[in-house]
Amino acid sequence: MKRADSALVPGGVPVPERQGEPSPPLGYRALVVVVLSPLAFALVFACWTLFAVLGLELRRDLALPPLAFAGLLAMPLLAGALASLPAALLARRLGGRRVMLACLLVICPFLWWIGHARHYPEFLLAGLGMGVGAGALAAGLVHVARLGPSRHVGLALGLYGAGMVGAGLGYLLLPLVSQAYGWRVAPLLYLLPVVLVAGLLWLFADDAEAPRSGREPGLAAALSAGLRRLQDWTLWRLAVTYGFFFGAFVGLALWLPGELTARYGLSLQAAALWALPFPLAVGAGQVLGGALADRRDFRSLRWWVSAFVLVCLFLLSYPPFEMVIHGVHGPLALRYDAPLWGFELLLVLMGLAMGLGLGSLMRLIHRDHGDDMALVAGLALTLGGLFAALLPPVFVLGSAWTGLSTAGFMFLYAALVACMLVMLADHARGPRP
Length: 433
Prior knowledge:
It is a single chain. This protein is mostly helical. It is built from 18 helices and 2 strands. A two-stranded antiparallel ribbon has the order 1-2. Helix 8 (153-161) runs antiparallel to helix 14, helix 12 packs antiparallel against helix 18 (407-428) and helix 17 crosses helix 18. The longest helix has 30 residues, at 373-402. The protein is globular. It is a multi-pass membrane protein. It is found in: Membrane.
C-alpha cells in the first residue's frame, strides 16, 4: 500500500492525509515541544523551590534547627538526582512524553500532602516524592532533543532550560498566597497547573517513533547496558561542567530568599522579589547560549564562563569587615559591606554567565553525543542534582563553622576551581576521539 504524505497542490491547498495515518505536521510537533516542555520544566522547578520560599513559616511552625531545614531542602534534590538518569533512559525507550506525564502526575499527591502534613518526617517523605517527580526534567530534555526543530535544536534546548525561571514563579506567588491564606494553601496552588499541563501533554504532544531493529532487549537489559556505557570517560567531559552550573544554580535558588532575609533584614516577600532576577538571568542566558551554540561550536566558551563566574564568586565571598591600617600619618580605617544593589548586580551578572554556559553546554552534548544524548543528559542532571543536594547542608555547616554568612559562596568558589582543574586535566588528555 502506498503512503500518502501531505503535500501542496499548485493552488496552495493542502492535500489531506489518508485515514489511518494521522501524523501531525513536523512544525506542529516542534511547536508543541517548544511550548509545553518548558512549561512542565518550570512547574517542576517551582515545586522544587517550594520549601525554600516557605522556609520562614516552616521553620517557625515545626521549630526546625538550621541543619534539619537544610535536610528538608536537600531531599527533593537528592531524589531528583537519583531519578534523572533512569528517567532519561526510560524516555529514550518509552518516549519522553509518557515519562514526563507520569512524573507530573507523581508530584500531585505529594503537593496535597505538604498542605496537610504535621510532622518533620512527613515533610521529608513529601519532598522525596516531589524529587522523584523531577525525573520529568531529564525526560523533557530527551523529548526536546528528539522532536525539537533540527536547525535550531540549541535554541529549543535553551528555551527548555529556561524553565528554571519556575523558581521565580514561586518567588512571586507563594509569599502572596501565604500572607493571604496561610502557607498550607500555597502548595495547593500548584496542583491545578500541574494537572493542566499534564493534560495538555497527553492531548497534544507526541512521542518520537523509536526505530525498531528486529529483537529489542528488555527494559532491565537496556538500562543495564546504558549504565555500563558510563565507564567511558568521554561521556563525562561536558557533563561534569554542566553538573556544576546546574547544581550551583539550584542550590543558590533555594538559599537566596533566606540569605537575603538574614543579611539585609528583608521581609519574606521583599526577599523573594530581590531573589527573582537571578533565575530570570539564568533563563535568559540559557536561551542566548543555546541560540549562539547553533551557529558556532563555542567549545572554549565554558572556560570563559567558568573564569567569569569564578571572579563573581570571589567577590560574593567577601563578608562585611572592618580593618585598621596603621599608616605613617595615623591609622586608616577601611570598612566593606556590599550594598543590596551591589550584591544583586553580581548575582545577575553571574546568573547570565551561568545560563550561557548551561545553554551552550547542552547544545555541545547534543552535538557530540547525539546517539547517547539520553545517557549523557541524564548523567549531567544527576551530577547537578547531587551537587545541589549537597549545598544546603554545606551552606549551614560552613556558616556555623566559620561564623561567616558568605561561607556558601566560598565553597562554590572552591568547587568551581576543582571543576576547572578537571577540565584542564581533560584538555591535557587530548582532543575527543
